[in-house]
Amino acid sequence: MTDPATIAAAVALGAAVVVAVAACWSALRPRTVYARLHYPGMLASVTGPLLTLAVLLDYGPGLTTAIVALTAGLLWATAPVSSAAIGKLNVVLGERKR
After folding, report:
1. Where are the transmembrane segments (predicted)?
2. CA distance 13 to 3
3. Cβ neighbours, 10 Å, residue 45
4. Tens digits of per-residue pLDDT, 34-85?
5. Is the pLDDT of residue 90 over 90?
6. How far is CA 17 from CA 20, 22, 51, 86, 92, in A?
7. How far is C-alpha 96 from the chain's CA centre?
8. Quick one: how far is CA 63 from the chain centroid?
9. 39, 88 Cβ separation under 8 angstroms
10. ∠ CA(29), CA(77), CA(38), 5° rounding?
11. Under a CB-based contact definition with an 8 Å cutoff, are residues 55 and 6 in contact?
12. CA gyration radius for the chain?
C-alpha cells in the first residue's frame, strides 16, 4: 500500500505537469507578444514550487530536499516575473511607511 506522502507527492507532481503543459499550449494562442509574457510566469512561479513540494514529500527532509528547495528558491527569486512582483511589493510597502 502506498503511504499518504507518496500520494501527495504524486498529486503535486501531476499538478506541476498540468500547469506546465497548459502554459505551453496556451502560449501558442495569444494574439500579442505582451499576452504571451504571462505564460512563462506560470512556469517560473507555479511549476517550480510544485516540483519542489513533490520532492519534499517524496524524499522527506534531508540534503537532497534542501538542495532542490534552495535551487527552486533561487530560480524563483531571480525569475523576471517573480522579481517584478517582489519589486512591486517593496514599492507598495515603502509607500505605506512614508
Report:
1. 6-25, 37-57, 63-87
2. 16
3. 16
4. 677 667 777 777 888 888 889 888 888 889 889 988 988 888 777 776 667 7
5. no
6. 5, 8, 9, 25, 33
7. 28
8. 21
9. no
10. 15
11. no
12. 17
